[in-house]
Amino acid sequence: MSLDAPLVAVAWLYVFTKTWRLGQLGYMPVVTFGILAMAVWVVYAMDRLLDASIRGVESGRCEARHLFHAKHSRAFKVGIGLASLACIVLVVMHLPVAVFSYLLVLCMMIGGFFAMSLFSQSGEQDVPYAKNLLAGGAFAFGTAMAAHVYLPWGVDELIRSREFICFAVLCFLNITAIDLWERAERSNDLETKAGAELALSLPLTLLGAASLVFALLDHEMSTRPFFYAILTGAALLQILNRTRHRFQLETLRVLADVALLVPVLVFLAFPAQ
């Protein structure tokens, strides 16, 4: 029902609010969590309806989530319309005017993502890295901006922040992992399977190392829990990557979501600074 992504977004929004100390530097109404959850749900539901339409329900290329959305397309379309209207009203009523500069960037990223979904000609064996980069970047930007908009800085500072960059890379690798695992399962070539594992293992290792360095460089320890959470997410994806042959693809999809939620628990385990 496309509820996994909103759950991850809301959980990480809480992480951003605590990391950037919004309780001390600004004020963020609780309704922001609801706006983010509905907005993410709208995008993901639209994407799955679009995928079902492009692939064709009778083609055999649709997965369970696409078939479910196609079967209940009328209900999803009504829900998308109502949620979109609610988001617009709540944004105008409750969010600061500065949010519109963030939304301009976010809409460009989402527009680019849907354009690539409609017009890209990638084959079944291709991994859509550019599309995944837009998806991961848009998800991370939308999540982080919901907190960042209440800080006395602008869009440029958000895009350059270590927290946003690391989270965006983690989201990108999370999305790409599924594509690489699907590609490896479809192929009988050992080199293709090994290449898929390396293509994910190397950037996950670099992300984990960068997160550890950023955590150790923070002598005030205000962002250490955040980067330890990123490190945990990278480590969990690395474990899944090495043990993926033990699980079915649908199970791996669920575990990939869990790999983004468990780090939030790690973040909460650290005392507030």
Count up the helices: 12
Residue share in β-strands:
under 5%
- Order of helical and strand elements: HHHHHHHHHHHH
Gross morphology is globular
Question: How would you summarize the topology of this molecule?
Answer:
Elements: H1 4-19, H2 22-25, H3 31-55, H4 64-71, H5 73-94, H6 99-119, H7 129-148, H8 155-160, H9 162-186, H10 190-217, H11 224-243, H12 249-269
Helix pairs in contact: 1-3, 1-7, 1-12, 3-4, 3-5, 3-6, 3-7, 6-7, 7-9, 9-10, 9-11, 9-12, 10-11, 11-12
Provide an overview of this structure.
- With 273 residues, the chain is mostly helical.
- The chain has helices at residues 4-19, 22-25, 31-55, 64-71, 73-94, 99-119, 129-148, 155-160, 162-186, 190-217, 224-243, 249-269.
- It has a domain at 161-273.
- The chain is built from twelve helices and no strands.
- Helix 3 (31-55) crosses helix 4 (64-71), helix 9 (162-186) runs antiparallel to helix 10 (190-217) and helix 9 packs parallel to helix 11 (224-243).
- The protein is globular and about 55 Å long.
- The mean pLDDT is 86.
